[in-house]
Each structure stands twice: as C-alpha cells, then as structure tokens.
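General statements about sequence and structure are easier to judge against a single worked case. No coordinates are needed to read the tokens, only the vocabulary itself. The sequence in question and its structure tokens are set out directly beneath this paragraph.
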Amino acid sequence: MRHVCTGAALTLLSAAAMVTATVGPAAAIPVPPIGGLGTTGALAWGANPSGELGDGTHALRISPVEPVGLGSGVMHVAAGWYHTLAVRDNGTVMAWGLNDSGQLGNGTTDETVVPMPVSALTGVIRVSAGNDHSLALRSDGTVWAWGSNAHGQLGDGTVTDRLTPVRVFGLTGVTDISAGVQFSLARRSDGSMRAWGANAVGQLGDGTFVDRSRPIAPVGLANVIQVSAGQGHSLALRADGQAFAWGSNALGALGDGTTVDHFIPAPVTLVGPVSRISAGFGSSLVVSGGKPVWWGDLCNGLVYPVDAPCNAEDEPSAHVVDIDQVIQVSAGGGYSFALRSDGTLWGWGWNYIGQLGDGTTVLRTRPVRILGATGTLHVDAGVWHTAVVVAHPPVNQG
C-alpha cells in the first residue's frame, strides 16, 4: 500500500514554492555561456534566490554556470540550503549566497552573489555546508565551523552564532566531515567518529535526545571510513562495507525496512556491501556493486523506478538505479546524482527549478546525463542547487 507523504516533503514543497516565486519561470531566464574555466574549476546550477550560484545574479540557472572569479585551482565544493563553499588549491575557502547567520564566515551577515574569502582560514582540504552553518577540515586534522549555532552545531561548547570560523572543541585527527540540518559529523583517523548539534530525533547516535555543543561519540561504532549527515538522520560506512544509520526513520531513511526511529547506530539491512554513502532528506543513497541504491522518501523526488511524483512506501525497500561504474553519489533536496569513473555525471528526481542542470525543468524518473558537467571530479547536491568540481571546461551545456 502507498500513501501521500508528509513531514519533510511538505517542508521542502513549501520552501520550493518560495524559491519558485522568488526567481520566476526557469524557461524565461537566459543561461550565459561558460568560458575561461581552467583545470579543476567549479560549476553550479539550480535555484539562485540568494546568489548561491555565485555568478553575480539572482537568476535561476537550468544549466551549469561558473562562479565569478574562482577560475582554476578549485579542489572541493559544498552546496548547502542557500549558500555554497569552495576550497582553493592554496588552502583558502571561498563562500557565497545567503549569510543571515554568518554561514559565509566573512565577519558579516551580508548576502553576496559572488565568491568572497572566508576570514582567517588556511590549510583547508575539505568543506561541508549545512542549512545555515559551515564546516572546514584543515590538513592538520582540526575542524573549524561558523554560522548558526542555536543547537551547538558549531561544536565550540556554546550556542552562540559565529560570523568567522571557530575551532570545533577537542577534535583532532579528523579525515572526513559532514554538515547536516543543525548538526555535524566527523570521522577520525583511528576509525572513530564524533557528532554534535541538534539531537531531537536521535541523529547524534549517543542514545539520548539531548543537543550537544561539543563532539560526542555515537554508540558502538568503530572502523568508520565515511560519514554523512542528512536532514534528521545520519549514515556511517565501516571499512568492511557495512553501512549504519540512525535518527529519524519516519520515511524509511534508515534502511532497515521499517519506519521506526533509532537513537543509536543500527546496521542497514536493505543492501549488501557499500562503498559510498550520502544522507538526503528523508532518504539515503549509497553505492553498492558499482551502482547507486537508494531507499526512503519517494516524495523527495527520488522516484526511480516508480513513475509517480509523490508516494511513500509503508515498508521501505531498496531501489537500484541502472548506472554502473559509480564512484560517488550525492542526495539533495528531492534529487540525486551519480558520478561515474569516466567523469560523466547523471541525475534524477525533482527538476522544476533546474536543480539537475540538464537544461530543462522536467522531472526525471530515470537518470539523465548532465552534459554541461563533463569531466566531473566531485559533486555536492544542496537543497535547491548543485555545485561540482570539473577537470576541464564543459563541452556541451545540454
């Protein structure tokens, strides 16, 4: 039996109506040509009400555009709700978009439609963008955070918003980070992990529902190689290929075939050995056997292979997407991407504001190749926009 879904999907639908009203019809907005992009550059597309595409406008883009002034030497990108981060090859961080909570880290709360430097932050190798906070991992294994801190998601022991980066308390030896909706995750080099921030649905995995302003260890996890924070749930991947999930499970995002919440990590049982993970909005996406596999909320646009825009399963099951040789996946706000080893990028799900970047606003219930992102090295899907790192200029905007 199937039913019309609620909760996270309705939240996204309400926000989507605001975005659509703000930026206007996608078909009426011209897409400028992409030029001058050097090796390892960044591209972005989708909704742009706060300048999160970094192209100097608020215009929605249904095909990839280049953020102004980044050029070559972009090593990593992260797309949040309405802001974007990029790491340069000199270890500095650039940020653009909404800045109402200081999530751009430049000492102000002023929105910017072009990339601007994050204050006094160097040696960065990786970034992650939450809904209104940001994380950066430095090469020395320390983690830095800025933006909204109402639930302790910056991990500095306070609930004070920060307009410039502060160090996450006590964290060393970190190799992976992930910013979710008002909470954060990190993986350490010894295979342990840490979590902090909002915990109303058990997403920190410590067996409580208490927010934490300093990092704590989720119960029972070891030999972790990757972490991923979603809207209200968390994923961790162990070295032996076993995935674990915890937090909200109302839409089946935890991958155990039920809709029962877990406040400590529990094994994912819907799929065998996993090589990559990505926590979305009421859904989860992994790579298993070289193919994308997802489960959870169909209302979030992850409708493959069901040709229906808004249905949720009472007994969630795993859905295999027919793309092979996949090396990375990213689950956004109702849409998803799979990156193949040949550098081609494929997307499916909601697309009415161009968040897939395929040059259309057509809902995709089957994967479509994103021609404007040829030579993709890394993809990060936000809620309404997407950012990628590419190895060379696109050959076709789709």
In short: The two ends are 38 Å apart (CA to CA). The first strand starts at residue 2 and ends at 3.
